[in-house]
Amino acid sequence: MMSLAVLFGLGLVLSGIAIGIGIPLSHRLGVVDRPGGHKLHDHSTPFVGGVGVFLALIGTLLASGYFSVAPTVQWLAVAIGGSVMFVTGMIDDILHLSFKVRFLIQACVALVMALVGGVVLSDLGQLVFGQTLELGILALPFTLFATIGVINALNMIDGIDGLSGSVSLVSLFLLSMVAFAGGAWDYSILAAGLLGGVAGFLYFNMRYLSHRRARVFMGDNGSMLLGYLFAWMLIALSQKPVRVITPVTALWLFSIPLMDTLGVMLRRLWLGKSPFRPDRHHLHHLFIRAGFRVQDIVYAIALIHLALGVIGIVGMRMGVSQGVMLLVFLLIFSAYFYLILRPWRFVPSLRRLHTLLGLTSPETRGVFLGNCAFESAYLLIDGLAEEMKSRDDYRLHVYQAEREGRQDRYVYAVLEILNEDTESSVEEIKGLVAKLKKSFKGKAGIRVRQFLIRNGANDRRVGSKHITQNLRNTDRRSKHHKKLIHSAHGISQPLAVMA
Fold first, then answer.
1. Running DSSP on this structure, what letter comes out for residue 404?
2. What CA–CA distance (Å, rounded) separates 494 from 393?
3. Where a domain ends, among 316, 332, 356?
4. 242 and 351 part of one domain
């Protein structure tokens, strides 16, 4: 186990050094991913994450001899295939190759894996009445199909900062553990080194603390390389002579990329579109529409991926029938496909979960306080003035309102935080909401929550499939008669007179 920790550290250091050098160099050479189209980022970002993973791979293969793993033809095939995938991905990042060219190169690499490395998907496990389902002459075509599928599945989920890296981290951790427990020492070493390489990449790619956006992307050079390595390890570990997992368990260990890619492609075909046409119906896009922040999405999906992987391993260890495990996996996939096929039904449930967990939305721009009786307006205003007296970056509006057809008056306030750094503002508002909730707890029925930007993409009351065609007013106070009774703009502005 100590040897695995050493290799993890080696991969981590090599990856960190390579990416650290690659970032300024890529800016100088113009090798960056620029915003636009269906992309979610708004800064030019280097896509050199694969450089770190590639160097970790080469370093692990070279160092494997020091850990009782002799160099073999298989390791040579891994290095050749990984190099081809890395270079192809880098060319694709810069020149944008057609999917036909990418598929052709991926098929050639899969042939190297099968014919040189001897890694072939020869059977699908004991799926029918406990009998092994041998593929026979279909083994090579199945191997090519599976390899190309895995490579592109990882590439297709690489849509937000930290996601593909976090999912890869989970899969590599589980693979290293099952390989170590099953006696496949060489593959546990390979997985541990790559685990370090991905961890080094995530240091630059994740959003955390003061890192409000990714400083580097994985790029196709990284996702295609990792996808190829995942295909190699999942097939090798599930087939003879190594076989420490079943082919069905391999599906569970790669569950999120597999289900998301198949689900999205089937949805496109269902709607009569090309399965290769980019859109915003991946799982992470649905979380975004539900108001989750990028880092919360990454944690949630990585946790789901970990849970599914553990279920697959536990089921295998407990001797659950492979046919049953496959059936359960297909049922989960069917449920997932149903949800993404009708996202207008799924997204509201995610929003309710978001509220239940008390998370902060990226659309948060301030604090909403209401609705208290009109007589408590001074209590509300004085409390806010006391809380905000040392700040000059806010805008406050307090309204008196009446419900249509009724005479009772109530008061609500909208406190906006004026900060150009949206991510910093969201973190700040989260703490402010907690403080105001504590300050106004039990006082005049004043409720405190986040104030969100209202638009068709994130308003929970818009239920139409075609949001752009839904023209109804989404302001929940639009049918109420309201009047501004107080306003303030930081410490330099005087208080308005209440009417």
1. T
2. 15
3. 356
4. yes
